[in-house]
């Protein structure tokens, strides 16, 4: 038995459809014996793989939260093969507030794995995800976006694939999700991963897993939400878990490797001169940092240290030293 203080209202082994909450104990002034509710739905029908789809690891990333909650409502258990575990708001306290970090404990869940079974609520959730939920899974999909501070196009993220089987599984998930971009990591992953992310947790458990960045800017992008809905159903179908679904024609993904981020060193207001998907070249001025508080001060010019295209863009105008304003990627291969 894994040591945990979290209890589940759903039975992971039972056939059929169940919804309820993971109960994260939280004893406070107004609720001495209280718990924080993390919503969970399980659909289990006969033989097939186990897939965990999570969203709301960061609470200000919304497309995934909607798409996963909808799946829980719309799928009928008789349409499913195997076991589907849906977690639409994994860091529920942060998601209820629309924040990246939880106000309860300042927990940034995707920097807390492998967590702590006796730690803060966010640490307990990380531990439960890694040690109780993920060991049940064959496949995992974790849905993010740029949150409040960044904007991404619909982009799948995947590791390098350490074995032929892992590579084939990752390729199957990538092709099934069929997002416009796929950011393929060139290193990391595997069972020895030390990443503090949910992806790192899934890799440590040997699970074929991908994540996705789906918009951002603290808003919902309808086209990206539509791609998310479509992609999740396509994944279920590709894994043999949704046999009666008829996928439409694939659109294809542009495979990218990340070059790195562009950072600012001066406080000011960020004016992007390039947008998502735009090409940039080394030395090219890609942003201005304005200083309206200082009459006569010229804006700082920020030039790209990389060739590539803009993958992510900061969505907040105010910047300070150390803030990333762009992520630049290049075509893979
Ligand atoms: Zn995130």
Kindly describe this structure.
Strand 1 and strand 2 (16-25) form a beta hairpin. This protein is globular. The N and C termini lie far apart (44 Å). By secondary structure, the protein is an alpha+beta fold. The chain contains six helices and 18 strands. Helices cover 20% and strands 30% of the residues. The strands form two sheets. Strands 1, 2, 3, 4, 5, 6, 7, 8, 9, 10, 11, 13, 16 and 18 form a 14-stranded mixed β-sheet that branches. It binds zinc ion (ZN). Zinc ion (ZN) binds next to loops.
Give the DSSP E fraction (strand runs of 2 or more residues).
25-35%
Low-confidence stretches: none
Distance from first to last alpha carbon? 44 Å
Radius of gyration: 21 Å
- Please describe the biggest sheet, giving its number of strands, its sense, and whether it closes into a barrel: 14 strands, mixed
Helical residue percent band: 10-25%
Q: Give the H and E element order.
A: EEEEHEHHEEEHEHEHEEEEEEEE
Count the E strands. 18
Main structural class: alpha+beta
Q: What bound compounds does this protein have? A: zinc ion
Shape: globular
Number of helices: 6
Report the average pLDDT across residues: 98
